[in-house]
Specification:
- The chain is mainly α.
- The protein has a single domain, classed as Farnesyl Diphosphate Synthase.
- The protein is 71% helix and 1% strand.
- The chain has 16 helices and 2 strands.
- The protein has helices spanning 2-15, 24-34, 41-52, 57-78, 95-98, 101-121, 128-142, 147-157, 164-174, 176-188, 195-222, 225-228, 234-237, 243-247, 249-267, 275-285, and strands spanning 88-89, 92-93.
- Strand 1 and strand 2 form a beta hairpin.
- The longest helix is centred in the last third of the chain and has 28 residues, at 195-222.
- The two termini are 21 Å apart.
């Protein structure tokens, strides 16, 4: 995992514009938002899925970087005063605090554009049609029927009581869409997937994407700001519906374990080559709670 995290970091450093390149302040802020933070879960999922199909590491690194750039842009915008209005991310001031709101807005815009540039710039699949499919998957995952749509639902849900189905619908889009996309993009960098393999990967990614959010909600409720690297208890302060408020902490932990079991079951037909995906599922679910 450390090897792949380091490769993901080097790839991001390489694809981001140099800090001294004009407009220098924007490029410095883009690098500030991306470099040296986070566990790189999405690139790790891409690497693990790529291992299933013998994908070259350099291809997967680029695909994983594209997804991570989208994720980073979403965090920059999510932290802004018009959204969650947070001042701490990954243990340091958020971009709009360190720079200013206008720069933060442009950083998010530029990171999103850069993600598609990275995904389109060089051959990542043997068949060009597959690479076009990769671009389509990322666009769908980032847009109104994916992450952006999930964020819109999240904002509209503040102060409301949601049932479990409504909460899952929100997070399948807000959090799960990019996790599913990262997994599929990694797999598309290698040999052609069988229908059964793609179906198994999709079921795995859906389950582990939801589990990721359940654990995030638990950590927000139970962990400290120092541990999280962001403001703890922010969801409760904002009166947001979470898995903890809907289910309670104990039931939320059980639901995370159940989702982990569903992810594990989805990997069984994929055989021993899916071992890294299973290990990452453990890593995602067992984060500190």
């Amino acid at each position: 995992m450390r090897t792949h995290q380091a490769l993901a970091e080097r790839t991001l450093e390489r694809v981001l514009p140099a800090a001294e390149l004009a407009p220098a302040r924007l490029h410095q802020a883009m690098r500030y938002a991306v470099i040296g933070g986070g566990k790189r879960v999405r690139p790790l999922l891409a690497f693990a899925a790529g291992a299933l199909v013998g994908a070259p590491l350099e291809r997967v690194a680029m695909a994983g970087a594209a997804v991570e750039l989208i994720h980073a842009y979403s965090l920059v915008h999510d932290d802004m005063p018009c959204m969650d209005d947070d001042t701490l991310r990954r243990g340091k001031p958020t971009v709009h605090v360190e720079y200013d709101e206008a720069t933060a807005l442009l950083v998010g815009d530029a990171l999103q554009s850069l993600a598609f540039h990275v995904l389109a710039e060089q051959p990542l699949a043997d068949d060009p049609a597959v690479q076009v499919e990769m671009l389509r998957l990322l666009a769908h995952a980032a847009g109104s029927r994916g992450m952006a749509g999930g964020q819109a639902i999240d904002l509209a849900a503040v102060g409301r009581t949601l049932d479990l189905g409504e909460l899952e619908f929100m997070h399948i889009h807000k959090t799960g869409a990019l996790i599913r996309c990262a997994t599929l993009l990694g797999a598309l960098c290698g040999r052609a997937l069988t229908e059964a393999e793609r179906s198994g990967l999709d079921r795995f990614a859906r389950s582990i994407g939801l589990a990721f959010q359940v654990v995030d909600d638990l950590l927000d409720a139970e962990a400290s700001t120092a541990t999280l690297g962001k403001t703890a208890g922010k969801d409760a302060q904002a009166n947001k519906p979470t898995y903890v408020t809907v289910l309670g902490a104990r039931a939320a932990k059980e639901w995370a374990r159940e989702l982990r079991a569903q992810a594990d079951a989805a990997l069984v037909p994929l055989g021993p080559a899916a071992v890294r995906l299973g290990q990452l599922a453990d890593f995602i679910v067992k984060r500190e709670f």
